[in-house]
Structures
1.
Amino acid sequence: MLPWLGAPPLESPEDARLVDGCSVAVLGSGPAGSFFAYFLLEMAAHAGLRLQVDLYEPRDFSKAGAQGCNMCGGIISESLVQNLAAEGVNLPPAVVQRGIDSYVLHMDVGSVRIDTPLHEKRIGAIHRGSGPRDLSTARWESFDLHLQRRALARGARLIAGRVDAVDWSERRPWVRVRDGERKQYDLIAVAVGVNSTILPVFEALNLGYRRPKTTKTVIREYFLGEDVIAATLGTSMHVFLLDIPRLEFAAIIPKGDYVTMCLLGEDVDNALIEDFVGRREVVACMPPGWDAQARSCQCLPQMNIRGADMPLADRLVFVGDCGVTRLYKDGIGGAYRTAKAAARTAVFEGVSAAAFRRGYLPACRRIARDNDVGRIAFFLTRLVQRMRLARRAMYRTVVAEQSKAANARRLSGVLWDMFSGSAPYKDIFSRMLHPALMGALARSAAVSAVHSERPVPVEDKKS
Amino acid sequence: MSTGALGKVYEDGEILMRQGEAGDGMFVIQEGQVEIVVDAGGHSTRVRVAGEGEIIGEMAVFENVVHSATVRAMGRVRALTVDRRNFLRQINEDPSIAFRLVQTMSRRVRELSEEVVRLKRQS
């Protein structure tokens, strides 16, 4: 299976620069791979470089079900939507299935809707592939296909095959597609996610690369129909803070005709899923008569929760989930940031390990450090999940904030950014500890301790 | 409007940003056209028309000053706001994100230079 293993020779930075006519292999054409190819070719054009970029992708994203799916919740964060727009990459309604302008926080003590200050739809709900396996007619374009087409329009070439071996000879990396020929490249960008079987090949090269630490997630799709979704879930992402053992976070995301249910936690299994879908708070936000067993599809993909060791080597770089990404949220945003940092380094600094250490590693470390802060922030969220008084204090504070000016809604802003992945965790954590917010929560806790409250459903779930 | 249309919809004549008011971000036009109008000396002058994909209001991001013009929807317009804070944070991490903006500003300087030349010839 792995016929040509062997550690590559180290190169001096001067030797390893991309020049006219160099060729680059990108393994995987999910968001990380397509962003890398797109920005590499764009920056190369700015620098007056002509490169040949080959995108290796075995999946056909135009197909429904597992054949075209990359197993993901399918949210484009607020910050990524804005960054892409500023880059000239505007996401059309043919790709974005639903614009999200609010979220509804569901707890056992009540539900509350929180709108964006600008009442603007700046979060995009998409399907990575064409749609769930029971899809009959695709009404929206796959997000991964859309990005792939953008990369191809920039000049990348699609090779519909799975790379199953990598080797170094003549001071250059080579790849081999299953049942195909070997091909030499000047750079390989690995963008295969964490669920790929090619990662052990790179570990065996003894370059220091070690796969990211992962946890299992659950993604379920339910067909409800566009009108039913508009009348029930609306344009809100529904987030659940429920005291369910091993459950870290759960959300229901309305798409075009489907809704996506995402569960993150420790050792997520069927028992946990059944516990969640049977909860009163979950049933209440779905349409009357909803059958939790009538799902369109389900997958249990691995999710990166701690970045890879040494996501670089001479003429080799790992971008997106198989390298470093954001903790729990905004995985596509993490793919964008790492892919762009790697492309920038390759064009302007070189493709040696030294160049990637200088130009690419700082971007990975910034994300990893922010994830460390994120772990503390999620620990605090977990405490709230476990303590009913804390949940009541949080609920009371958020409800009271909705009548205030946008910049005075401190807790709503913190929760929005936590759940949508729109801001760095460091920024969210510092706002969490603001004395005014701590004071408001302490007051709400004191009031909640002396007043019993009945659960309150959200007043308006519609768009 | 489709369920997946991002941003906010402005009806014909609606103001996206008003001259003299503080700005906290810029707009990227997603659909439709807007006119950029400057009020000076009791007169309103249409400076230009901007369409799909164009960035407007970028001066407020970098100069932290009030808007120098009014932007009004011509027909139905969909526009996305890019927050000043988010954009500056991203520039700090990845300066290349400003490349397109610099290209836009460079093109506008060139257009203005051409306009100055044309006006000087007329006078």
Note: The radius of gyration of chain B is 15 Å.
2.
Amino acid sequence: MAALTVDSLSRTFEPNMHAVRDVSFTVPDGRIAALLGPSGCGKSTLLRLIAGLERADRGAVYLDNREVTRLEPQRRGVGLMFQELALFPHLRVFDNVAFGLRMLHWPKVRRARRVAEMLDLVGLTRLANRRIDELSGGERQRVALARTLAPAPAVLLLDEPLGAIDEPRKRLLRDDLRALLREVRTTALLVSHDLRDAVAIADDVIVMDAGSVLQTGELARVLGFPATVAVAELVGYATLVLGEVQGGTVAERDVGAVAVPLGMPLDGRARVMAHPTTLLAVPARRGLGCGVVGSVLARRPDGPQHVLDVALGARRVEARWEWDLDPPPLGERVELAVRPGTLRYFTPGGAILEGGTAAHAAQ
Amino acid sequence: MSARAGRVLVALPLLVLLAVFLGWPVGTLVARALALDEGGAGETLRTLAADRYYWERAAFTAGQALASTALTLLVGVPAAYALARVRFPGRALLVTLLTVPFVLPTLVVALAFQQLLGPHGWLNDALALVGLGPLRPLGTLWAVLAAHVFYNVSIVVRLVGAAWSTLDPATEEAARTLSAGRLRALTASTLPQLRPAIAAAGALVFLSCFTSFGVVLVLGGGNPQLDTLEVVVYRLTTRLVDLPAAATLALVQIGGTLGAVAVYGMLQRRGGTLRPSVAPLRPWRALRPGARVLLSVLVGTLVTFVVLPLAALVHAAFTLGASELVTGRHVQALFRDTGHVSYIAPLDALRWSLTFAVGASVTATAIALAAALLLRRLRGRAGAMADALLMAPLAVPAVVLGFGYLVTFNRGALDLRGSPWLVFAAHTLLAYPFVLRALLAALRALDPQLVEATRTLGASPRRAWRYVELPLVAPALAASAAFAFTISIGEFGSTLLLQQREFATIPIAIYNALARPGDANVGRALVLACGLLLVTGIAVALIDRVRYRVTGVL
């Protein structure tokens, strides 16, 4: 195990096309970080740079204090689990898991013991002699994980580890993966385009877009206080009000106004955002909501309740409807209610404002 | 050593080999054709151009090749459909059966058709039963065309079938839901997607028929109207010893084959590597009754077409000229030294055939592997040029190559006339392009992530090759080596020009026996052909075992 530090790493594939631009962060020893961002934002390239499968144009990669930037991939001690798993089709499960140990010249007996240990860890002991094409998707995924873990890499990289799994099984495998990674207590960096993977598995999160890091930090902190509008949107926040600050509120025509918390240094224009999981739609003009009103665009049943799409000017926001078993008719005006302390305020430049006491705002 | 230095280290010997054993002989042919050493540049060309005979031969060669190609596609494309899309009883057997003619020596094929179509062959026996006949197809174009379709149909079935099986059936179904009829869906959606594969297969079949030699020599029955350019080059070299004329025609030949090779190469690249996903086969029961009848007729015809000539060959070998039901006398006669100057001991011939075949197969596979490793990472224009250069031997017909060697390696220290090494070199060069294509396809089908995975698991590039890539391409390697073996063991055109009695191969022994009259000699040829059939059959079995893991021309 080791801490992974990436310092000002850059990689350009074509002139002026930065796949990874000046990226820096640290994953402390034994922690699991998720690299989050839309498809094509440079996450996979960053992993390949760390693993040594791509050459960096600039910057450095450190494992603890050892620089590995110029080392060949086989000398780095970095394990990479591929999105498509890349299991060796000509080898059986046992030999797939043993491959890395063989490359490290482990003696046969020790090798067999370690492989048995790894197969036991991922619960595949009984499949040791199976061919890869005889395994299910989830079993293959676990073989790939066992193969990557077997040589005890200093750092474990996982490229969309759940990308090839269908949705219902994903939930189970997420829990499996989290439990496994906790058990081996390895430093891990996990790439995903699905926020739910990060939430379920990681301690820390690194948000990337267009080759650059937008924010790093503890998962709960980044999700609760996205540093910029861009990060907020990437982790799922929606804009409630985008308008002028006047008389202690932020107001937008045809949408409404929300109160500004006491002491928050806002003037001119501002943007107020909230995460859809914290929003409820309620009947309008009864003094129940936060002052933002829109009309129902669409309704989706979600169990016995409904989720509504609410039009706020030209924007569309998702909110749960728990007022009644029957949803409101299309076109009906509804107001949005917010769980206390979950509205986030941003400057016109897109930076979050944390002055004042946000918790008071909605009360 | 850097990767670039490694590539140069591999490329250099390859280029030297190609320059010495291909570039130099072809260059010598050019010099001979233009009679540069006699100061009469272009004289031969003018003489030949003024002679109607040569124009006729060139036109006939191209015409029969086109007709053969059209007929082969007509038979092969429906068969490719059946094998790629439908699971019917005996499907696997048919696939194996169709591999056999492709790897059979042309001389064996010619002999088989001679026995089937001859005056006392099964065709005329059958016609006589219903009071018809006799027909005399030997010595006519029909016999030649039938043999050409016979041994080329599997090229079409393999290339088109492989493309068809990776074609998403949903595209045809989509066309049908867009209110296209069954036929419209086929012509508007399926065939256009298959066009590159069909054209590539057509180019290869054309190439094979354009350079047809053994079949014409045996089935042409001496009819000069059926002589292809390849046969004319042979006659000019050995009978008339008009080397400048032979050299000029050889170059015309190369011109024609180059065209076909260029078309093939272009389509090969456009087609790209085959996608690994293969559409599921439709079960036999799911077909409509009409389709089942049609398919049964098609499969039945194919099986008959493949089995009948070979059965006639084996039958004739054990019945020819005998009053009893089965005779072993031709087998016994084979081992009795006739004392005739042209007698070739069968075991000696077998020994030389196997020596050449094993040597050529190992060498061609080694060279092709080096070339394939060089080519696999090259893309774009550089890749296309390197590919064309390394595939160049495909454009040189066998007789032309043999003739080129005769006029090149005949001086000083390099006077190799009468040496078995020239036969070995020719066989290697003739087999190599096929091995290269198969290996390249196998290498390019490897998932690059597998190698990356080995690297992150602590393997150097060399160990990644040894433990992952090599085991994964090993089946393709074995299959293409076996294929090279069959090419060499059946090789006839170049061997006929380069051989001596001391190292004659089985095809030469067959031809020698055929050249003399009498049932005894024909019987001898038939038994030898059966032996060759057996050896190639074993090689096919080996190819067949790894078939499903190999993509490409094979």
Note: Residues 29 and 124 of chain A are 28 Å apart (CA to CA).
3.
Amino acid sequence: MSNSHSPHLHHHFHSLEQQRQASSLGMWVFIAQEIMFFGGLFCGYVVYRNMYPEAFAVASHQLSIGWGGFNTVVLIFSSLTVALAVRSAQLGKKNQIIGWLVATILLGVIFLGVKCIEYSAKWEHHLVPGIHFNYEPHYTDDALHESTGSEHGTDHHPAPAVYPGHVQIFFAFYFAMTGMHALHMIIGIGLMIWIIWLATKDRFAPEYYAPVELFGLYWHFVDVIWIFLFPLLYLIGRHVT
Amino acid sequence: MPDAASTFATQVDIYYYFLIAVTLFFTFAISAALIFLASKYRRRSQLDRPQEVHGNNMLEITWTIIPLILSLVMFFWGAHLYFIYAKSPSDAMEILVTGKQWMWKIQHPNGNREINELHVPLGQPIKLTMTSEDVIHSFFIPAFRIKTDVVPGRYTATWFTPTKTGKYHLFCAEYCGTKHSEMTGSVYVVHPADYETWLSGGGKKESPIDTGKRLFTELGCVTCHHPNSGARGPDLTDIFQHKQLLQNGKEILVDENYLRESILNPQKQIVLGYQPIMPTFKGIVSETQLMQMIAYIKAISQKPEIKDQESDISNLKIEDNQKLPLPLGEDKR
Amino acid sequence: MTEQKHYINAETTVKSWLLTVDHKRIAILYLLSVVGFFILGGTAAILFRLDLMTPQGDLLAHETYNKMFTMHGVMMVFFFLVPVVPAVLGNFLVPIMIGARDVAFPRLNLASWYIFITGGLFALAALVLGGVDTGWTFYTPYSSTYANSNVILTGLGVFVAGFASILTGVNFIVTIHKMRAPGMTWFRLPLFIWAQYATSIIMVLGTPVIAITLLLLVLERAFHIGIFDPALGGDPVLFQHLFWFYSHPAVYIMILPGFGIISELIACFSRKNVFGYSFVAFSSLAIAIIGFFVWGHHMFITSQSIYAGLIFSILSFIIAVPTAVKIFNWTATLYKGSVEFRTPMIYALGFIGLFLVGGLTGLFLSSMGLDVHLHDTYFVVAHFHYVMVGGMVMAFLGGLHFWWPKMFGRTYNQGCAVFTAIVIFIGFNLTFFPQFIVGYLGMPRRYHVYPEEFQIFHILSTGGASVLGFGYLLMFCYLPYSLIKGKKATANPWPATGLEWEQTTSPPPTLNFIHDPVVTEEAYAYAKKNEEFYRQAIPAESKDV
């Protein structure tokens, strides 16, 4: 192979092609691992949602669709910017790589900032699981007055009263899932800073840009997780009253 | 072989012998083959030239199919036993068991209570309804070959028909903390007459059903749950083991766990046509009281028509080789 | 001195070891660490076995006893059995056997060792700060609410160590896919590689689930979020499902690599190719895949639905079939072979015998009706020790003795080693066979005090354990001794086939091969080697054969 003396080739590979394939397969296997990791959480979420659908519906009303939707848009845009960064790497345009990655970092920071706002709101409303958790169950008055109410008796259904414990389970999953997701974003931002540093050192070339490409895969994966989290936590059950 | 003192124990033991036979057969056959081949083809010289044998598909298929068939036989037999274990006969006498770190609390139908001891009459199918006040325990009577986890927050059940008088071990089999190994006790299988005598011993008592009935009034359940139509809550007569249509469109069979949920989390599964107005009794009633209230609700329900052939005591093999001194209430710890 | 340069003497500073990216050196680092954890876990076992000599448990207090068996389980399962073959022998051999210069991601490999050590330090800290008493299974709600010991630290330790195992798995999968030498096709791979590949799949797909489960447990315990607490509406049994979703496949992490080793040993010491190569290879994959769908057999008596139980039970029976296929093929490999009773072969034959018992008794437990009685008794304890110790530890020791000359370039005393192997085999059976009997009699596991009628079995067991312990001690004498005084090993002392024996020195150089190998023949081409050897020898020694 003509490229066997490339400065980008690590000592234990025979060719750049082998090296590229290895690192790309490695990232895919790692992503499989990540899917199982979040899979455990999704599985637990589904089990409890099934057990306490009303409590989960009531609890998801406490989340702000506005902020969640805004964050979804932010993340989708960051997927675009990171894809553009990979594109620039393929073309060997160093300054563009840096530019698009900085944009991605900014979008990531905006996402995390919004997440902080949401988290602090939960904290203020005592919705963080733990000893401070305090959700007031509302036994609706109209339910007490309508002793013979049936499915069709009234066009306005009272929200079913739910137990704080069940609402707390929802928030436990909310914080575990979004927290793990946010942790992945923070790690991603750290990786981007490292890749920008590599780029400034001229480490990438059109025949070697694996770190940028693999990071792109990782970031898309983190976005996809959010694409699942957003409807599961914010949207499903909104229509249930 | 440990004592086999229940109908189930005998059935399990036969299966066990079968598995032992299979195990011994394969262990000896394969060990013999190994020893034979290893010695027959042991290396005699540096210049041995073993032949290349790549494999034989027929042989591979044979030794895939045979273990497969054998394991399917074992599976069906084992599953059959499990179905016996899982389904209690309808005429079983119900005894309530509560596990807590580190003791077993037991209450008999007439109200007699005991701790870490269980008296049962010979030949009578017994159903244990169990729950835990804290962690997961497991109710294990080796002589009866039964074991069932006792899980907080739900009811589990197990049953047996004792066939041999005597004193047997009762263990907690699921690790439950510091004194796990002291969460043990004894099961006394006695003649029905002796059991009656034992029941009549002890001081003033109230059967779980009566206690349940009393609680039903004291806690005010009766104010909503009464047979008049138009009551705020559903009538509870004749609901146990019957189907109920729920508000969310599902149909459920009323069992112990449903009744328990309905007392603790009444909003979770509401019967069609009623409002979610019942408050929770979580923290108000204890595990024991819950069981008593459920016993009462069960008592005011007619038995469903399903009959079980297990209830025929006449074909039971009853052994009575040990005349034990009658353990009465006074030997409670 | 013009000593040959190899990976051990290439550099000698401590720093060169701690910052190495050479997979062989990382394997040695792992070897030292897992041996350390093995000694800790073993010491705990000796202590509680001594204590169990009397029914009242006179030696230890209840709490101490509980902490000892927990430490034994945590150390042995998470810090010894899971990493022992993949991270030690696998790390050393996978690249060499497929003709690569290193694993695909050498730095990740080193990172995995540091992560493992960090996890281990957490677990050690938990121990030093008073121990943990939940059992290695951490069942809720005991572990989340009621236990008064260092559950959080231990849970974090296992959580962290899990990532070491994930990284090793990722590394092996990529290495085996992408780093094979020219000519090394999938069906020329040694069976050890197939087994490592199947194991890596489990490590990558199973470990994250236990990681998240333990994280939820830690959160539950720290913040009381209610996920596993029935008082708050949680489901304690969900923990068991998540836990066993990993921990049952983990059983196969702990045994599949052992299968791989045995295939190598049996072939080498019968001087024959493995009978039914592709059946042995694919049975590993079958076990890895079915292994993900049998976890529920740990919950037959835990109010699981009967129908779920039926599925789990039948799959547990079916997984026995590929396992049986392996055993039959190994036995058939001896047929028309030239069997040599060297130390590794003694371990391999011992493995087959013990694993056979371990596997068959597994059928007792996958059967729903019988598991009702046997669940959580000493029968279970005996069963999984036959699989884990009789299986995996025997296989590991066989492999260690087989590749020892390759790893360290020295040979050990064969007489000592054969004697030790026999002592270990006898000691093992003495320790664990009585536990089958006492288990069927009804002795529950994790019992500190027990009824007197079980004492005789416990005395036998403790006696056996001391023989077993003596066997391990012997090994700790002659193996280190061989490093100093042992004879220099030749490149292929047994002699065996495989790139690690035929294409490189003992010990190998830093980049494994002086010239990158090209593979032209099947694995286990012993017949061809024998023929060559015979032709060379005949003119000189025509007297034989």
Note: Chain B is about 35% helix and 20% strand.
